[in-house]
Amino acid sequence: MLGRKMTRATVLAAALGLTLGLSAGPAAAADTIKIAVPSPFTGSAAGYGENVKAGVVMKLEEINAAGGVGGKKIEAVYLDEQCEPREAATVSSSIVNDPDIVGIVGHLCSSAHLAALPTYVREGIAAITPTATNTTISSKSKDEKGLTWSFRNVYRDDFQGKFLADYTDKVLGLKKVAVFYENNDYGIGLKEAFIKEAKALGLTVVGEEAYKKGDQDYTPQLTKIKGGAPEAMFIAGYYPEGALIADQAKKIGLNVPKMGADGFDNADYIKLGGAAADNTYLTAPFLVETAGADAKKFIDAFKAKYKRDMDWMSANAYDAAGMMIDAIAKVGPDRAKIRAYLAGIDSPEKGYKGVTGVNYFDANGDCLKPAYVKTVKDGKFVPAPKQMN
Amino acid sequence: MLEQQLVNGFTLGLIYALIAVGYTMVYGVIELINFAHGEIYMLGAFLTLSFISMGLPLPLAVVLAMLAAAAIGVLLDIVAYRPLREAPRLAALITAIGMSIFLQNLAMIIWGSRPLPFPRQALPAFFSEPALTFSDVTISWMQMLIYAVAVVLMVGLNLVITKTRVGTAMRALAQNQTAAALMGINVNRVITFTFALGSAMGAMAGIMVSMYYNTMYPTMGYLAGVKAFAAAVLGGIGSVPGAMLGGVVLGIAETLGAGYLSSPYRDGVAYAVMILVIIFRPSGLLGRAVTEKA
């Protein structure tokens, strides 16, 4: 009964507010400031969404325990978009229509981010994505006046492709490479950046084959690749297919180092690939082992709280939330001012020092951060013995 | 390299053939394209995994999974298709698609949507070692096992169909269901047997695939089902030897297409071969030309 009475009272208050022309604005939320965290929390990508949420939760607890921002608590609104572009588009309009939400940490998937971005740009709310790596985002982050609304503290696919080619040449010293790519935006983007850099470095590309998501048999392509006698193979795709490719490559006697991008960074890669996962090198935005003192503290706190090892997505989300809150603290809960503040973080000197290193953005909202290399040894991810930065 | 591609294509083709016979047998008997057959193939793999994790030895787990899959196939017929036996054929076809989606999602609820590895410790270590090596061609023990299982199952299936009473009844049903019933054949019992046999073969294919590629996931039946269906059509739907031949032709076409033409168009090459055959031989490689029944 009390609930019903209260509902009635709320409705009355709202009606009153409407008749008064809403002059007071969202007075009810005066003691909290909201940020939106749109990510997949159900569906096949839900595991990734949980990682992002874990990072955001830690940052918020830390800030709110210290009294919040200007006496106000920061609250995150978690919105499930299942990594689906059409769900992301729906979620995006509910975010921009909530006047209490001042900024966004998300989306997780590039395709979802791209679907939601036009709404954010048009309505004017800044988003920092901790994980979306697609290159197209850079050209869609600006409004008509040339203001950037979408930022990311993760590197782009073309950077990863180029970086892996550099690593193959300069650190591993391998000169004949083959590329096996998933036939979609992610795989093709990685492949093209890798091949462009490989050719610039004078490497020989002895094979360039495609596969489809969900394929099981990769032996025809691998047999062809083996015929070119490569010294290394770049697998541009995700870990479920990557693990099978590694396994089948081993079975047909193609025992060369395998290169992978962030799509490989999952413990299931080793579980599915077994012994064949060994001798894989992959890019990582963040290495637990080479992190600074702040980061070590974060890693320990993460492990204590969630009883599992921290992953790079949580660290990036922790920093993305940190930047957003920093902006709110500096300029107040105002969407336009927050955007301007974030856009102003454009050099290492002005950069935000987080657990993942120094975060700052270029004119497109892209981050300029180094990459690290992990490798699989005896069924475990370990930092590669030689890094390149 | 060509020889190796042929060996790999042949292996893949035998697996398609094992699935395709299930399609073709059911079609031959009740003229239904059982789109849920790909899911039976998927369940074969997952059931084996579950039986192994209960601590059963591999051969027993495989046999139990085949029996369970046969039971699921029969249940599928009783629950979903038998009530529609007299309904327009389209109704049963749509029901089949519905059952396929249902079984896929059921598997996701039971085993999760992430790909799972086949339990390595259950397999003898030598399986992935080469069994035969001629110059640059390698055939692994796993491939040898697939050949052996496929040949034994297919020869056995042919014997069942041509030499046994129930096989004769199946053929009679394929020719004319009413006449067969008038001759005293228990139509529903023969159909049940057909579903059981076809499902067990499909499950075996799923088990072999999950062992060969060391992975299984709930949606694995979709693509395999479509390919096997194409193989059944290529060979002449309704013809069991046709399904076997169709599977092998499709597997080799796909492998050579990926290896020599263009890997992004791998599946396209396989389907192009099927379309070409159908244009020149509408009833498939070994199918008999029949006039459409009224």
UniProtKB/TrEMBL annotation, chain A:
Record CDD domains: PBP1_ABC_HAAT-like
Signal peptide: 1-29
Keyword Metal-binding tagged: no
Domain of life: Bacteria
One GO term (biological process): amino acid transport
Pfam families from the UniProt entry: Peripla_BP_6 (PF13458)
Cell division in keyword set: no
Keywords of this entry: Amino-acid transport, Signal, Transport
Leucine-binding protein domain span: 32-379
PANTHER family hit by this protein: AMINO ACID BINDING PROTEIN, LEU/ILE/VAL-BINDING ABC TRANSPORTER SUBUNIT
Protein family according to the UniProt entry: Belongs to the leucine-binding protein family.
Name this protein carries in UniProt: ABC transporter substrate-binding protein
Automatic annotation (TrEMBL), chain B:
Stretch forming the signal peptide: none
InterPro entries with a match to the protein in the record: ABC_transp_permease (IPR001851), BCAA_transport_permease (IPR052157)
GO terms of molecular function: L-isoleucine transmembrane transporter activity; L-leucine transmembrane transporter activity; L-phenylalanine transmembrane transporter activity; L-valine transmembrane transporter activity
PANTHER family: BRANCHED-CHAIN AMINO ACID TRANSPORT SYSTEM PERMEASE PROTEIN LIVH, HIGH-AFFINITY BRANCHED-CHAIN AMINO ACID TRANSPORT SYSTEM PERMEASE PROTEIN LIVH
UniProt entry tagged with the keyword Membrane: yes
Segments traversing the membrane: 6-28, 62-81, 90-111, 141-161, 190-213, 269-290
Bilayer topology term: Multi-pass membrane protein
Family, per entry: Belongs to the binding-protein-dependent transport system permease family. LivHM subfamily.
Protein name, UniProt field: Branched-chain amino acid ABC transporter permease
Key words of the record: Amino-acid transport, Cell inner membrane, Cell membrane, Membrane, Transmembrane, Transmembrane helix, Transport
Record carries keyword Mitochondrion: no
A Gene Ontology BP annotation from the UniProt entry: D-alanine transmembrane transport
GO CC annotation terms, alphabetical: plasma membrane
Location(s) in or outside the cell: Cell membrane
Pfam families attached to this UniProt entry: BPD_transp_2
